[in-house]
């Protein structure tokens, strides 16, 4: 994909990307959630969001590069966990059944300097294609309020709003969203 003179490149994330991905995620949470949450909500979000190294190990996490910079990242999962990073409580590594479960779209982040360039759409498209290729007929995610406009524009529908309560008692608002995937010819 080309954006004003640059070419965005999609690739699978590698373990050596983890420090750069963590920095990108921190910048995205710090800056992109401020229009939607008060300062204490942004701070609380770090407890429930972040890098999930299992996605990288599973080969389901993508990086979008804009030149030499990582512009964004995100992935999908065959595992039950809906959201959260390595440090988050309540993770569930159980494998999903494509015949009855929805794959998970997970850990979508765009660097604040790279918003509105098609990074998120590029990652979503890759996730949806990969999940469909493995037999999943739908995907679900836990969307932050900052991500909801993109996901709705990409034909995701609201399933239910909910909150993730942090150790400080702050309730971070999220929306469970979903989308049916087109059948893949086999």
CATH architecture: 3-Layer(aba) Sandwich
Q: Can you give the mean pLDDT? A: 94
Q: From the helix content, strand content and strand pairing, which structural class follows?
A: alpha+beta
Span between N and C termini?
27 Å
Q: If you consult CATH, what is the topology?
A: Aminopeptidase
Unreliable sequence segments? none
Radius of gyration: 16 Å
CATH first level:
Alpha Beta
Trace the largest sheet across and list its strands: 1-2-3-4-5-6-8-7
- How much β-strand is present in the residues? 25-35%
Order of helices and strands: EEHHHEEEHEHEE
- The CATH superfamily is Gcn5-related N-acetyltransferase (GNAT)
Task: Walk me through this protein's architecture.
With 186 residues, the protein is an alpha+beta fold. 28% of the residues lie in helices and 31% in strands. The chain contains five helices and eight strands. The protein has helices at 18-32, 39-48, 53-58, 119-133, 148-153; strands at residues 2-3, 6-12, 61-66, 69-77, 103-110, 138-144, 157-165, 171-180. It has an eight-stranded mixed sheet with strand order 1-2-3-4-5-6-8-7. The radius of gyration is 16 Å and the shape is globular. The model has no long low-confidence stretch (mean pLDDT 94).
Quick synopsis:
The protein is of the alpha+beta class and about 190 residues long.
Q: Which features does this protein show?
A:
single chain; 186 residues; alpha+beta; Aminopeptidase; 8-stranded mixed beta sheet; 5 helices; 31% strand; globular
């Amino acid at each position: 994909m080309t954006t004003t003179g640059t070419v965005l490149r999609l690739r699978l994330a590698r373990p050596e990307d983890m420090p750069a991905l963590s920095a990108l995620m921190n910048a995205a949470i710090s800056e992109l959630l401020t229009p939607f949450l008060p300062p204490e909500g942004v701070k609380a979000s770090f407890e429930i969001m972040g890098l999930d190294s299992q996605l990288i190990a599973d080969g389901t996490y993508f990086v979008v590069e804009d030149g030499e910079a990582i512009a964004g990242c995100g992935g999908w999962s065959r595992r039950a966990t809906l959201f959260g990073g390595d440090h988050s409580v309540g993770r569930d590594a159980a494998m999903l059944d494509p015949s009855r479960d929805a794959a998970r779209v997970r850990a979508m982040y765009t660097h604040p300097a790279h918003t509105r360039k098609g990074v998120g759409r590029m990652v979503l498209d890759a996730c949806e294609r990969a999940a469909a290729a493995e037999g999943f007929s739908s995907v679900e995610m836990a969307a932050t309020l900052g991500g909801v406009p993109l996901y709705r524009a990409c034909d995701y529908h609201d399933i239910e709003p909910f909150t993730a309560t942090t150790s400080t008692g702050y309730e971070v608002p999220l929306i469970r969203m979903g989308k049916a995937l087109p059948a893949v010819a086999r």
